[in-house]
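ok new one. same drill as before - structure tokens go in, u give me an amino acid for every spot. 241 of them this time. try not to just spam alanines like last time pls lmao
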């Protein structure tokens, strides 16, 4: 019996060595590493300046992104249209970033909650996580009550309700406006300038990866290096870093 047990022990040890060797070979030959895949669902706020998806790819070159965006679309429009849902249902996503029309979360809160929750349910079913992209104050809608504070409250409320992360781009925009009103982040109708898209990209980057965007050295020829550093700092503070 003693000799039999010893033999089994040697066999087990040999098996472990073989497994370790196979793993080592796989790693040395560049075994596949899980890729972060991000789907953006929104409108022109997301697609402006070549797209927030492309901005995120510049900040994190290892990720893969795709977007479904139509001008002026709300989440309700996306739900009815069906193309965004088809993209979600293809699966394989790590995150799906949802951006509603700029005034809807404040002026049509019930629809914002209804379709935000509906999309989040579908996203969970394919094994992905929903991220809510908080938009920013647009000067031509302030008189209607669509302020930075109101937008922030709406997105944070929905995020808490459905258990989704919120990418606080609107919070970052407001902070930059207070600190550097000379640096235009958006047009009067709210569409982002290239600086605004870069800032929103830094916020989404920090939200998805859970790290500060400060120090990101990814080249961006459209944004001066000093402005990149400034906007990274604004994004980091909005994220709590």
């Amino acid at each position: 019996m003693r000799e039999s047990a010893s033999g089994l022990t040697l066999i087990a040890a040999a098996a472990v060595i073989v497994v370790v060797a196979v793993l080592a070979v796989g790693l040395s030959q560049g075994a596949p590493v899980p890729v972060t895949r991000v789907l953006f669902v929104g409108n022109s706020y997301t697609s402006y300046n070549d797209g927030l998806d492309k901005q995120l790819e510049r900040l994190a070159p290892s990720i893969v992104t795709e977007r479904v965006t139509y001008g002026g679309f709300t989440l309700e429009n996306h739900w009815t249209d069906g193309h965004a849902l088809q993209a979600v249902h293809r699966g394989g996503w790590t995150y799906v970033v949802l951006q509603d029309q700029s005034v809807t979360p404040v002026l049509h809160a019930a629809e914002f909650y209804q379709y935000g929750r509906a999309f989040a349910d579908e996203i969970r079913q394919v094994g992905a996580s929903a991220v809510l992209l908080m938009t920013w104050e647009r000067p031509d809608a302030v008189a209607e009550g669509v302020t930075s504070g109101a937008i922030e409250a709406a997105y944070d409320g929905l995020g808490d309700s459905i258990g989704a992360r919120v990418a606080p781009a609107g919070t970052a925009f407001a902070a930059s406006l207070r600190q550097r009103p000379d640096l235009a982040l958006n047009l009067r109708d709210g569409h982002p300038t290239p600086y605004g898209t870069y800032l929103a990209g830094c916020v989404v980057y920090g939200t998805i990866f859970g790290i500060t965007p400060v120090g990101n050295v990814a080249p961006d020829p459209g944004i001066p290096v000093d402005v990149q550093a400034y906007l990274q700092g604004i994004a980091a503070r909005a994220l709590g870093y």
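Residues 95 and 240 are 21 Å apart (CA to CA). and btw The longest helix spans residues 2-28.
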